[in-house]
Design goal:
This protein is of the alpha+beta class and about 500 residues long. It has helices at about 50-65, 110-120, 120-125, 135-145, 150-155, 165-170, 185-190, 205-210, 250-255, 315-325, 335-340, 380-405, 420-430, 445-455, 460-470, 480-495; strands at about 5-10, 15-20, 25-35, 45, 75-80, 85-90, 100, 160, 180-185, 195, 200, 220, 230, 240-250, 265-270, 275-280, 290-295, 305-310, 350, 370, 410-415, 435-440, 470-475.
Length: about 500
């Protein structure tokens, strides 16, 4: 009987379940969106119960439509929106609070206090991360501060913390009836609580943030031959399938793009935009506003590190154009509208809706449209919306080139926005390097599937994964150097206009 590998891809706006064969090709899939909850300006939440319910739905539906049974799956991997923080009762599975999403800025005061009292160095030297609202540790502290029941349960050992990978693996392997409480090294590296060298929770930071140690999951490899647990017969797979792999979504895309060599890089254009460069088994410390993070760890092998540049708003800006302004009715219409004009009409859209991430790290920034004149129409607006993702990527590449000492020679791309050919051409023009799209663009789910398949021998080694990777299209740069320099200079001026909008008292 032919076997398949499955991946749960739990993203910021939706959950997908995708089935792959030995060639890494998709044989079944289902997707379902979940609510975005905005209690206050800059605050973002999800309902963890809704996410688990949607996960069960997409698993059942994808299997049924593909005509595949749970017994035909060799293993299952999980990939997830990172940093999003959940705290729940280990006896009932009931969350104490909504999930606090990676985009949420409610921990700004906590982060400022940490910097004031301890400085950035105390955290960055251990974790590779700047103190920022982006990461999970301060989000966990906020929940414990504002939900007394969660604080009490945490002290008693009755509450569990996890990012979304941990939440889903716990439920897939039984939930309150023996669910496994683990997180992989890539997700742990996004909490601001893990020592990047030891790959263990850093006790001194736990003390600073006053986080009870029993709440934290066990840190495991991204692809683990020591299977963590099995899906349950009363769960959506109705069969004991090994659960043995997890990767944060951007690291999963790195694996899915087979960026296994030092210096290889990929950029994912999703809700946010995330560029990762493999730096090998050596941790490279950024001096130009990037994050040092775990790329992946295969079983007991040495971990692989990355430099990462994170952009908070990419595809989310197209959503905003659709949902908040009603300028388009469907996301793909943005390219059609942008093609009605020859350029951006002199406007630049910096989408600092919840501050700016890499390389600026400015929580005080807010969104700006700069350069408006009476000439500008909605076509120019659509074009500026698309170009914002490319400009933010350019900011990161500039920093990455300086940190790594190696100039980027090409960029592998994936994510929902890479079907937008206008954006891909502009990205190649702006970076002055080829932009390469693979045949299978669902690289996040594919990376999680690869990690699960490696753990159970479905694929024997990394070389077998490389053989699966095939190119779909390459965009070559065609913009004159002077034009490139002028546009980027105007973008930088627009970015400066976003600073200091939120007063810090």
């Amino acid at each position: 009987m032919e076997k398949f590998i499955a991946a749960v891809d739990q993203g910021t706006t939706s959950t997908r379940f995708i089935l792959f064969d030995h060639r890494g090709e998709i044989v079944g899939a289902e997707q379902k969106e979940h609510r975005q909850i905005f209690p206050k300006s800059g605050w973002v939440e999800h309902d963890p119960v809704e996410i688990w319910s949607n996960t069960q739905h997409v698993i059942r539906t994808a299997l049924a439509r593909a005509g595949i049974k749970g017994s035909e799956l060799a293993a299952i991997g999980v990939t997830n929106q990172r940093e999003t923080t959940v705290v729940w009762d280990k006896h009932t599975g009931q969350p104490y609070f909504n999930a606090v999403v990676w985009q949420c800025t409610r921990t700004d005061e906590i982060c400022r206090d940490l910097i004031t009292h301890y400085g950035q160095e105390a955290f960055e030297s251990k974790t590779g991360l700047p103190v920022a609202t982006y990461f999970s540790g301060p989000k966990l502290r906020w929940i414990l501060d504002h939900v007394p029941e969660a604080e009490r349960a945490g002290r008693k050992g009755d509450a569990l913390f996890g990012t979304v990978d941990t939440w889903l693996v716990w439920w897939l392997t039984g939930g309150p009836q023996g669910g496994v409480h683990v997180t992989d090294v890539t997700n742990a590296s996004r909490t601001m609580l893990m020592d990047l060298d030891a790959l263990e929770w850093e006790e001194s930071i736990l003390r600073v943030l006053n986080i009870p140690r029993p709440m934290l999951p066990r840190i495991v490899a991204s692809s683990d031959k020591n299977i963590w647990g099995y899906t349950t017969k009363d769960g959506p797979l109705k069969h004991p399938v090994p659960v043995c792999a997890a990767l944060g979504d951007q690291q999963a895309a790195l694996v899915g793009q087979t960026c296994f060599e030092k210096g290889e890089a990929k950029n994912t254009y999703g809700t946010g935009c995330f560029l990762l460069m493999n730096t090998g088994s050596v941790r490279v410390r950024s001096r130009h506003g990037l994050i040092t993070t775990l790329g992946y760890r295969i079983d007991s092998q040495d971990p692989v590190y990355c430099l990462e540049g994170s952009v908070a708003v990419a595809g989310a800006l197209v959503q905003w154009l659709r949902d908040n302004l009603g300028i388009i009715t469907k996301a793909p219409e943005v390219e059609e509208l942008a093609r009605t004009v020859e350029d951006n009409g002199g406007i630049y859209f910096v989408p600092a809706f919840s501050g700016l991430f890499a390389p600026y790290w400015r929580a005080d920034a807010r969104g700006v449209i700069a350069g408006l004149t009476r000439f500008v129409n909605k076509g120019h607006m659509a074009r500026a919306v698309l170009e914002a993702s490319a400009f933010q990527t350019k900011d990161i590449v500039e920093s990455m080139n300086q940190d790594s000492g190696v100039a980027l020679r090409s960029l592998k791309v994936d994510g929902g926005m890479v079907t937008n050919e206008l954006l891909m051409q502009f990205q190649a023009d702006l970076l002055n390097v080829p932009v390469i799209r693979p045949k299978i663009t669902e690289t996040t789910a594919l990376g999680a599937a690869y990690a699960a398949g490696l753990a159970v021998g479905f694929w024997p080694d990394l070389e077998s994964l490389r053989r699966n990777w095939t190119m779909d299209r390459t965009w070559l740069p065609a913009m004159p150097q002077e034009e490139r320099g002028n546009k980027y200079g105007e973008w930088k001026k627009a970015v400066e206009r976003t600073f200091n909008w939120v007063d810090r008292h």
